Amino acid sequence: MRQTSTAPRNNKLKPSSNLIMNGSVRVRVIRTLLAIQNGQSLASVLDPLLNSLHDGDKGFAHALLLTTLRQWYALERLLDSLADNSIDEKEVRTTIQVGLTQLLYLQVADHAAIHETVEAAKEIEFAHATGLINAILRKVAKNPSKFRKKCDKKHSLPNWLAYQLKQDWSEQYDDLMQGLRQPAPMFLRVNTAVTSVEDYQQALVEFEVEADLVELTSGLQLNNSSDTAKSNSILTKGLRLHQSAAVNALPQFAHGAASVQDMHAQLAAPLIHSALLNKLSVKNDDADGDMDTSNNEIRILDACAAPGGKLAHWLELISSDGQSPLFHVKQNDEFVSLVSKVKLTAIDNEAPRIERIYDNLQRLNLSQHDLQQTEKNIELNIVCADATTWQGAGKKKSKLVFDAILLDSPCTATGVIRRHPDISILRTEEDVEQTALLQADILHNLWPQLKVGGYLLYVTCSILKKENVEQMQDFMTHYNNVAAIEFSDDCNWGIEQAIGRQCLPIDSESGDGFYYALLHKTAE
Questions:
Q1: What is the DSSP letter of 182?
Q2: Residues of the chain predicted below pLDDT 70
Q3: Cys-Cys crosslink for 225: which of 35, 285, 305, 456, Cβ 3.0 to 4.6 Å?
Q4: CA triplet 426, 102, 414: central angle to 5 degrees?
């Protein structure tokens, strides 16, 4: 999934990579926060920060940075209420917020939190503010529970985003505001081409890693050969760890037995795969069971595919023995294949992210070389291209190319703020408008490339309706050959929308904020 990333428009700081490479732990965290405020993403600065520290300091630095980001706007409002006069220097504000995080959320001893934070101000050459910093932190240290309650009482988002979420999710607003401030659980997707979910859960026990089995049921009202809807139930299994763990602590992780993937993200591949199977079975039924599959080649597309988690999941489903009817389905007491060859194209417009796709597929034994070693005929083509203009047919006359498209659309990523709390700092209200236009451009470019009877699964990790259900409603006004597939009542995830379903990151055990809509092409 590609995420938009834009810097705050009114910031004049020019941080560089050396900001986080020297000084005390708190100084490096402060400089990292300043870099984020100037537009650098958490993903780009976290590893340099941690790699610059001794092993014993990494855990504290990580907790201090992530917790400060999660509580950022709440801490800002608390700071404004504590100061007699406006504090305009960003470095001073950031230093105080780092001190408040230690006192209110990390239970660092008062003397250590105050002394080390004041010393950090000196290190970043803001010694003139040490008296102010000391006074504010000491005031909070006298009654931390009072100020913690005050901090927790309100949301920790920029006002524009909180306002929009209240408009979109009035009933869930209070729970959502608190949920977005909490750490997200760690989920695993088990590679069922290697082992079962239950067996891997047992293997985790032997590595002293506790995990719960999570089962999500998805019901789709798919059309059959008689043009009537039939309910198609899909069971998606994953594992939720009781505590986050390093991947090197997971059994056979390096050999592709499992991947770290949010539980709601794990819905994407099974949904589009089920829709694809339905399309092929309808075609087979229409042929009265006599369809010649010897030359029945299908083409599928994963658009905006990096870093490759959903692509890998789809390949696992396609190639998994005993689980994918693409290559062996029972018909008239005999096993036949629905297709002779699968051509899967994956595109993304950023070359460095393309490299991450290759790395992930290599670990999971799903590279093109690995796929060629199987009995199945799967061809994988990864292309660096812009989804707003790319044409899968090339110079061919017919532009109806794909049987199924998975569009993991660019979005503001507001549904994954728990994992990437810098998003609330980096995003602006204007970004939502720009992103919605980008999404529309991609949809209008890809839809004409879908074959009649094919399916397009639209996915975002946003919780803003403008990027989700409203985007779908607007898209459907432009075409008379699109039908939205309904989710049936047996879905045990998400909230039903006018089109599609929306997941919200409300509780500490749930997945992230994903939106899903499945579109069916009914005519040319």
A1: S
A2: 1-21, 224-231, 283-295, 321-337, 375
A3: 285
A4: 25
Task: Taking the CA atoms of 378, 383, 389 and 394 in sequence, report the sign of the dihedral they define.
Answer: negative
Helix (H) or strand (E) holding 330: strand 329-331
- CA 95/CA 92 separation, integer angstroms: 5
Predicted TM-score of the model (pTM): 0.92
- The Cα–Cα gap between 57 and 60 comes to 6
**Bridge partners of 213?**
239
Segment 461-499, tens digit of pLDDT: 999 999 999 999 999 999 999 999 999 988 999 999 999
Measure the CA–CA gap between 353 and 370, rounded to whole angstroms: 21
Diameter of the chain measured on Cα atoms:
85
520's enclosing H/E stretch is: strand 515-521
Q: Which two tokens stand for residue 436?
A: 């919605």
Q: Quick check: 71 and 151 in contact, CB under 8 A?
A: yes
Given the residues 411, 461, 491, 503, select the one marked as catalytic: 461
Those residues whose C-beta lies under 8 Å from the C-beta of residue 118, and which sit 6 or more positions away, are: 130, 133, 134, 137
Q: How many residues does the chain have?
A: 524
Which residues, 6 or more positions from 425, have their beta carbon under 8 angstroms from its beta carbon? 8, 36, 37, 69, 72, 158
Going 158 to 162 to 168 to 174, the CA torsion angle's sign is positive
- Whether 461 is a known active-site residue: answer yes
Strand partners, 494: none
Looking only at the bridges linking them, the beta strands covering 297-303 and 341-348 are parallel
Tell me the residue ranges of DSSP E strands in 202-241. 211-223, 229-241
